[in-house]
């Protein structure tokens, strides 16, 4: 069997790190998969569940002669992991990650390393689950899911290719994108919708008739607010890490809503219709994109 | 077999009217179900599909000696139907409807009839489908769905009871609610979420990177924006018919979002966490309500 990498080290064995580790083990992508983390009970569980081969509690020992180090900690902690890794890993080690925001890590790398290392390949697997923790680690999690790599001018083509092969080996569809564009696109499709869902549910829960509101809501409301059940800490980290793009998308949305509010207040039926029709068309177009993407995979 | 009503007349045989008609026929709730509408081809189709027993093109003939007249036209047209019915139906005929907003019809009835008739029982079945038209009429559409009756001080208890029995006969769970409360609750759970979904998709479609946005969006975005594929004309009618409550809910939401925007801009992590946690708890509470409601039905 030809491994893509010899030694893969996963920092943090939650859903994201654990699933990559398990996929790499099961699919023979790495000769050895080593976990590092703070809670030994979790690391032992990762070994017991066959998610990793072994674990280390000392970061320096864990990453020694690693080919690839995958940072799979929460978003804001990932910045700190970069700082801890800086004195420990050599230039030959590829550092990559799975965090939802890329700009904050890129800027952290600039601060920490002075010059951003050629072997730093920031990446974002767009996959998740309502479950979390090492017990939820799933070797199939990334199959047919998109992974966005955000190489920069500093990035080595070879390092990027290795990370791409790892993800493709896990069954993912890999694309590359500029750091800023990634953060704007994700602010639009993921971060802003989460903020709207959280704000809506929080606003309604504070209404006088909140009992009747939730008691009479139906399936459309359930779909619309599902993401408000997401992990608050994770989304707290994400919106702060991607502050600039998130605020810009919030403002664009608020402006749009303000126009619609005025149209409703003034009874401008034609403008209301035009906005709803544009949205319906765009939504149907999006459905077609999703459908084609799914068909392309089969 | 004991019928609840002798002659049921359905004005408009789309999804809502056609499904009630078909359920009343199949379940033997009405001795005769008559359709009225503008397009004869649709009315004939309703007969061919077994949705109604027969149809009339003349409204006066259709509603003659009707026990119950069900207005199942689009929201804004329902107001006009009330005006057309006023000179045609006697005090013994129950008039009811299935529109999504109740306050505009109540006020229309005040204008049209002077005193709101005792036999006017406004109602709102909270059921729908992505399909529409008489072909989509489904006798099971209302099974286990909620129907909100909005009786007023003028409403006859007997008329309300007849309408309740019809809906219960169709398998629906019937509750009663004040007109204003209904319109506020629906503005919160249904009308505002539709406005947010339409605005979000419309705003994103206008972004420079709209292709990348839709191309990289995943399942959460699909769920969140599903309702933006809804019929623009129907939602245009609803937001204009329920203007006051909709604007009030929009403003409450916008205020909430403004606070969150400031917290993000200023990096107030604790406040962001508190808002997300409140929302997550409320959303989980709502999930339990929905689950209990579904279990109660089984």
The strand count of chain A comes to 9
Integer count of domains of chain A? 2
Largest sheet of chain A: 6 strands, parallel
Architecture of the largest domain in chain A, according to CATH? 3-Layer(aba) Sandwich
Biggest interface, chains and residues, is: A-B, 90 and 91 residues
Oligomer status: homodimer
Class per helix and strand makeup of chain A: alpha/beta
Q: What percentage of residues of chain A falls in helices of 4 or more residues?
A: 55-70%
**CATH class descriptor of the largest domain in chain A:** Alpha Beta
- The end-to-end distance of chain A, rounded to whole angstroms, is 26 Å
* Beta-strand content of chain A: 5-15%
Q: Spans of chain A of 5+ residues with little confidence (pLDDT < 50)?
A: none
Q: Strand sequence of the main sheet of chain A, in spatial order?
A: 3-2-1-4-5-6
Rg value of chain A:
21 Å
What letter string, H or E per element, gives the SSE order of chain A?
A: EHEHEHEHEHEEEHEHHHHHH
Overall, the morphology of chain A is elongated
Domain Prephenate/arogenate dehydrogenase (chains A, B): 6-294
Protein name (chains A, B): Cyclohexadienyl dehydrogenase
Keywords (chains A, B): Oxidoreductase
GO molecular function (chains A, B): cyclohexadienyl dehydrogenase activity
